[in-house]
Amino acid sequence: MSRFNGSQNIGDIVSILPKAGEIFKEYNIDFCCGGNRPLADAIREQHLDETAILGKLEKAYEDASKFNSLDIDFRKMTMSELTDYIVETHHNYLKKVLPELGELTTKILRVHGKNHGDVLSRVHRLFHNLKTELEQHLIKEEEILFPMVKDYDKHPTAGLIDSINRVMNETEAEHEAAGDILKELRRITDQYWVPEDGCATYRMTFKKLEELETDLFQHIHLENNILFKTLELKLHNQKM
Ligand SMILES: [Fe+2]
Ligand SMILES: [Fe+2]
To answer: How many C-beta atoms lie closer than 10 Å to residue 117's C-beta?
Structure first.
């Protein structure tokens, strides 16, 4: 019997098998902000081939078990461990790549704006909006939300609940906004297609934007579908 089926939540599948994120990306299935719904819903709405997708998931799971790459089970981490992992892995990556991409998107607009100004000026604007939003978002998580979550891990008091809840809701809305910008970037670049006269910098910029998309989807998935879900459960139990 197959391990995966359409009634499972998209986010839960990625929690079991991180590589599923790549498969969902290939089919344009939203697994970070739209992760909290059954896979079958997305398949139906987007008219996708369920058997093919489930087959790919199964194969990826078998490969991952062979190479032991299912070792990190984020669901078994404490909230403090998970927030540390997110900062070390995903926030540090963003702090490095956002300034780099800021320069690159400006450079390709300057060099190729004459022939591809329509697309590249929109890429430049959208990316810089995303960059500003994310920089503020990281500060909010690192300076406000994550320290509160860590406090809550140590001393789960009712007083912290409301503050955590409020910031968590804001943060979740910011994830949605970032996800929308990424979708728009992918759409206007025609899936990051590089024209024939595009130079090496043009190609590298689009490649890095695609890597940013992959990383950010996994990052938002860990926060929305694992960290916030754990928090919601704890907050709910505390209120009972
Ligand atoms: Fe984050
Ligand atoms: Fe976040």
So the answer is: 12
